[in-house]
Amino acid sequence: MRKYLGPLSKDNPILVQILGVCSALAVTAQLKPAVVMTLSVMVVCAVANLVISLIRNTIPPRIRIIVQLLVVSTLVIVVDQVLQAVVYDVSKMLSVFVGLIITNCIIMGRLEAFALSHKPIPSFIDGLMNGAGYGLVLVIVAFFRELLGSGTLWNYPVIPSAFYEAGYMNNGLMILPPMALILVGTLVWIQNSKKINAK
Amino acid sequence: MNIFEKIGKKLEPTFEKGKPLHCLYPLYDAIDTFLLTPKEVTSEGSHIRDAVDMKRIMITVMIALCPALFFGMWNLGYQHFLSQGMESGFWNCLLYGFLKWLPLVIVTYVSGLTVEIIFAHKRGHQVAEGFFVTGFIIPMIMPPDVPLWMVAIATAFAVLFAKEVFGGTGYNFLNPALVARAFVFFAYPSVISGDSVWISESADAISGATPLALAMNGSMEQMPSLLDLCIGTIPGCIGETSKIAILLGAIILIYTQVANWRIMLSVVVGGLVTGALLHTAGMSPVTGWEHLLMGGFLFGAVFMATDPVTATHTESGKYIYGLLIGILAIVIRVINKGYPEGMMLAILLMNIFAPLIDYCVIHIKIRKRKVNISRHKIKL
User: Fold this and answer.
1) Angstroms from A8 CA to nearest CA on chain B
2) Average pLDDT over residues A84-94
3) Residue-level pLDDT at B195
4) CA distance readout (Å), A70 to A109, B47, B281
5) Which residue of A91, B107, B145, B282 has the smallest Cβ count within 10 Å?
6) CB spacing of B186 vs A167 below 8 angstroms
7) Which residues touch B240 (CB under 8 Å, ≥6 apart)?
8) Phi, psi torsion values for A155, nearest 5 degrees
9) Counting Cβ atoms within 10 Å, is residue B53 exposed (0-12), middle (13-18) or buried (19+)?
10) Cβ within 8 Å of residue B86, ≥6 positions away
11) 8 Å CB contact of B161 and A189
12) Residue B149 and residue A189: Cβ atoms within 8 Å?
């Protein structure tokens, strides 16, 4: 069980393996798209792991990347269609980044490193947890960016208007991608110092 | 033994290791070494002996900043009373500016030194002198009415992410003072751009546009005269308005060899040539000379671009670095109307490129010398 919880902290795909950073910067300006993105990646990663694990013994090793890409891209198209049907506005906001889940290194990495050599059920759980580890970082970053950058959470204003009257202003830098990079960097820093302290 | 020494001696034991106040030792040490000559001297391995140390360099920079600072204070008051339509004496203006500047500088030092001391304590070293100049420059490049909490956040951000993360004083690759300004510029654009922020508490009817903003909007006829630009009786940050005071600072820096004249010269040449070219091409109504006299160009060239840590270290690299700063600053000013103050962005960008320039210069030199070595061997 401990093995599966690793992606949430000490084997976190973003903070420790530094994978999937690109989308982490792009979709975290607000909490809502970040959560939707998290769910999409969790679904794609888990189901792709399951499928690849089921057919792992029949895939010829030389063309395994193509097979993996085929499975992942099929899933991404399904997820994209579902998003457009259910949450159209968020799907608009995420725009190209849903499609780019195909190139998310976390998913290919888990297929190569785990699904090809493990049984279906563990693979499914592993995919789910890695998606969750990715999502955890996204949600933390998006929480701070939306709170400090727009003064809202999930599009509800949370900073009392008395603050604004007293001279408080939203931090425009938080909306811009560089701040997401700095926030992710800070999380990496915290993670690393935790590791050093543990030693 | 004077009074400071006595107090320092008396207090020192309370900060020693094991005592409850040991966590404040970096603070004690910073104050002690700032007031008095430190008792530690280099014990081994130094072959070059010189009276210059980091503290003396930093103090020299602060002295060089003083003419611009005092003029800026007076100008702050002068512009304020002018916009209110009131006559006021010299001392009144100076006092008004001083009272505007004082809270800014206190907030900057408290916020920046807090971060520095936390890090010094964590890493077990002393607070380095580097922040004294950074904290001195930050109030000089902010608008006079900027809210103090923004200054505090910006300073803490700059010290933390531009300096301490990379290892503290001497390891930063970006100029922390400029990072603080860039932070305010991008995070809270409304307090640092536009026409109304550059005169302290101005009356609403008066437009306080800086000459740079006027020129970029094409309203050249409202431009102050060249003499005003030189003396500095124009709206602007505390530090940037008076070109004469900045030149005075430049002379002090060059004479004491604290700042490098190559960088200053090449920044000015780069700006002048680019400004002249763009003027001739009809893209900008401002001539090259006027570009030099407007906005923070000269202040940046003299005090920011020459920061020895973030500039290039090779001598020929300094020319390239300076030229590119000058060119980029003017190009950003003329082409991108959204960012009238291109100097800040140009210096930050070139700070990032400085290590690359050094790398290329060193490798080109090595390649040249390699040929010499092989030729020499063949002859032998």
Assistant:
1) 25
2) 88
3) 66
4) 15, 66, 55
5) B282
6) no
7) B68, B72, B140, B141, B246, B295, B296, B298, B299
8) 70, 5
9) exposed
10) none
11) no
12) no
Q: In angstroms, rounded to a whole number, what is the distance separating the alpha carbons of residues B272 and B290?
A: 9
Mark yes or no for CB contact A176/B165 under 8 Å. no
Q: How confident is the model at residue A197 (pLDDT cuts 50, 70, 90)?
A: confident
* Residue closest to A102 by CA, chosen among A132, A140, A65, A73: A73
CA B347 to chain centre: 10
The domain containing residue A105 runs over which residues?
A: 2-198
Of B231, B240, B233, B228, whose CA–CA distance to B295 is shortest? B240
Domain boundaries, chain B: 15-37+54-258, 260-380
Span of B132-136, B290-294, B370-374 with lowest mean pLDDT: B370-374
Read off the pTM.
0.84
Residues B164-181, mean pLDDT to the nearest whole number: 87
Strand partners, A156: A153
H or E segment and range at residue A153: strand A152-153
- C-alpha separations of A164 from A87, A159, B141, B152, B297 in Å: 32, 8, 25, 18, 34
* Cβ-based contacts of B186 with chain A (< 8 Å): 172-173, 176
For residue A157, report the phi and psi dihedrals to the nearest 5 degrees.
-65, 125
CB contact under 8 A, B149 and A167: yes
Given A169, A176, A185, which is nearest B188 (Cβ)?
A169
Q: pLDDT, tens digit, for every residue of B327-347?
A: 999 998 888 877 777 889 999
Mutation target to probe the A interface, by most A beta carbons within 10 A, among B166, B186, B349 is B186
Query: Per-residue pLDDT tens for B225-241?
Result: 778 888 888 888 888 88
Locate the chain A residue with the closest alpha carbon to B161: A182
Nearest chain A residue to B147, by CA: A167
Secondary structure element (H or E) that encloses residue B165, with its range? none
